[in-house]
Design a protein that fits this description.
Blueprint lengths: L7 H22 L8 H14 L3 E2 L5 E2 L2 E2 L4 E5 L2 E3 L13 E10 L2 E10 L5 H18 L6 E2 H14 L3 E2 L5 E3 L6 E5 L10 E2 L4 E4 L2 E3 L5 E3 L6 E3 L5 E3 L2 E5 L4 E3 L5
Antiparallel strand pairs: 1-6, 2-3, 4-6, 5-16, 6-7, 8-12, 9-14, 10-11, 10-13, 13-18, 14-17, 15-16, 18-19
Helix pairs in contact: 1-2, 3-4
This protein binds 2-amino-4-trifluoromethylsulfanyl-butyric acid (MF3) and cobalt (II) ion.
The site of cobalt (II) ion has 6 residues, from strand 10.
Length: about 250
């Protein structure tokens, strides 16, 4: 299946959804505090998204047979992705990945960031910063007809030269009228390999970076993904449009 670029009309809708999601992430920053619980952030996100006339993309989303039960994923410390919101209070020093998708007028946007709860260790801060830098190192190579492997390789090398490992069992994805479209956007790869991406391609790029080994495991709830060695993991994601000369982050304010 070839990668199908979006029309200007589709991009305009995704841009609007992306601004909405960016505003939500700014509001959530103030809510991630010691003693707060992820279930309250989930309710806040649900209200924000629905009041804006959009729908939470994750709620009821099916993977295998199971439906995801919440509007956000909240993944703390050694949890990599897909943590289900709960009532366990955040502790000072935690890092919490919050991942949210919304569907505005039939088009999805998807983003994630990892927040610090109060003051965090220097090592945790370096991991979070490196994950964001790996994302920006990756997108810097984007322009019309770039090889997907150029993006993947740039993310991988930024993470690994900092001494970290990239999660290989999960990846980013094309996005549009479906939350997950082609292509799969791996966070490791080789420059020059893979399909080329025409201008108008929209992809969710989402490095998941581990302080220790790259291997991950699924918990008994059948959703939460944790690091195999119990060490910290960080996640950062934006929905990105590829343009003739570069890229546009759709899930950012400007
Ligand atoms: N952002 C996640 C992804 O891109 C979506 C979470 S899957 C869900 O795959 F099941 F939680 F919705
Ligand atoms: Co995603």
């Amino acid at each position: 299946m070839p990668i199908k670029p979006k029309s200007e009309a589709e991009i305009a809708i995704m841009r609007m959804g992306g601004k909405l999601l960016a505003e939500l992430f700014i509001k959530i920053e103030a809510l991630v505090r010691p003693g707060a619980v992820s279930k309250d952030i989930d309710s806040f996100a649900y209200d924000f998204i629905t009041r804006a006339g959009a729908k939470p993309s994750f709620k009821g989303y099916k993977v295998g047979g199971a439906k995801y039960p919440a509007s956000i994923c909240a993944s703390r410390n050694d949890e990599v992705i897909h943590g289900i919101p709960n009532r366990t209070p955040f502790n000072e020093g935690d890092i919490v990945g919050i991942d949210i998708g919304l569907n505005l007028r039939g088009y999805h946007v998807d983003a994630a960031r990892t927040y610090a709860v109060g003051t965090i260790s220097a090592e945790a801060a370096r991991l979070v910063k490196t994950t964001e830098e790996a994302f920006f190192t990756g997108v810097a190579v984007l322009k019309a007809n770039v090889h997907l492997g150029d993006l993947s390789a740039a993310i991988q090398s930024a993470a690994e030269r900092a001494g970290y490992s990239v999660v290989r069992q999960f990846a980013g994805h094309g996005i549009g009228s479906k939350l997950h479209e082609e292509p799969q956007v791996s966070n490791h790869g080789k420059a020059g390999e893979g399909p080329t991406l025409p201008a108008g391609t929209t992809i969710a790029i989402e490095p998941m970076i581990n302080a220790g080994v790259s291997e991950v495991l699924m918990m008994d709830d059948d959703w939460t993904i944790v690091t195999r060695d119990g060490m910290l993991s960080s996640h950062y994601e934006h929905t990105v449009l590829i343009t003739e000369t570069g890229y546009e982050i759709l899930t950012a304010l400007s």
